[in-house]
Amino acid sequence: MTALNTALEIDLTGQGTAESLGGRFCGGVGGEAEFIRGAAASPGGRSILALPSTRDGGSASRIVPRLGPGASATFHRCDVRYVVTEYGIADLRGKSVRDRAMSLIGISHPNFRSWLVEEAKRLSLVYQDQVYHPALYREDLEAWRTTRTGLSIFLRPVRISDEPLLKEFFYSLSDKSLYRRFASARKDMPHSRIQEFVTVDLSRDVVILGLVFRDGREHLIGFAQYSRNERDRLAELAVVVRDDYQRQGVGTLLHSYMTDLARKSGIAGFTAEVLEDNLPALRLIEKMGFEAVEAEGGAKEMRLIFDN
């Protein structure tokens, strides 16, 4: 069963009202709560709330830190799965309060996102050091691609709500893969480190996730990032592929896609630092046209100029 409903307001935990704004009643209970709960409880069911991101001509957000004083809670946070606005979809199933808040902020109107982050900090719904960049999510960077082995992958930019996805990805990597990516024997990936990857300014840097879908959810199998250096119009490129998906063409696909994006953005070429004993990565980037320019401290500095 799929239930499609709407709401007047929804707070950052997923609780919402379809009856009142604060103490001002706008309607009765109706059957919304029953349909939401019935869909959530049915085998394979989906409960969807679709609402505009703002009200009152854009002067107020429908996604709020807390429901207004006196508002009736029409539906409980545990029954809602999907929340949809014109800025995207938040899947709240199985999410912590913090992850729910970040997912809902990510689909709120851009004019209210900074305010929502600050209010979420004040209410201790998110980390106090939570960083937020106002650059909009870029749907034009989404694409489906197929590797040489026939694996279909969805490529999209990172979202502010992707921290749990990235944490799961990094902890799935072997010690060898982690060492090759970070050139250190680190075993942990705390929030302070993870958020560096999910709060990038997409107007300057690009982080692309390679995803497959199983059991109704996204699984991150590859990660690519470039950081622009305005001084020489080059960008530093890094690519990581989950161990069980290596040697299936995922790395080559991510390299090619990042190259296409960089060319369109006016970047002149890539640099990459690769450990000398990381033979799979060296073979891959040499195949992509990179050349070694210097070697220092057990790492090779590789460079690819697009015009060449």
Structure description:
A hairpin with a 2-residue loop joins strand 4 and strand 5. The strands form five sheets. The chain has an eight-stranded mixed beta sheet with strand order 12-13-14-15-16-17-19-18, with helices on both faces. A four-stranded mixed beta sheet has the order 1-6-10-11. Strands 3-2-9 form a three-stranded mixed beta sheet, covered by helices on one side. It has eight helices and 19 strands. The radius of gyration is 22 Å and the shape is elongated. 34% of the residues are buried. It is of the alpha+beta class.
- Topology as H/E string? EEEEEHEEEEEEHHEEHHHEEEHEHEE
Main CATH class of the largest domain: Alpha Beta
Provide the helix percentage. 25-40%
* Global geometry: elongated
Largest sheet: 8 strands, mixed
SSE inventory with pairings:
Blueprint: E1 2-5, E2 9-11, E3 16-17, E4 20-21, E5 24-25, H1 32-41, E6 46-50, E7 54-55, E8 60-61, E9 63-64, E10 82-85, E11 88-91, H2 97-106, H3 110-122, E12 143-146, E13 152-157, H4 163-172, H5 175-182, H6 191-198, E14 206-214, E15 217-229, E16 234-241, H7 250-264, E17 269-275, H8 279-287, E18 291-296, E19 299-305
Parallel strand pairs: 1-6, 2-9, 6-10, 16-17
Antiparallel strand pairs: 2-3, 4-5, 7-8, 10-11, 12-13, 13-14, 14-15, 15-16, 17-19, 18-19
Helix pairs in contact: 2-3
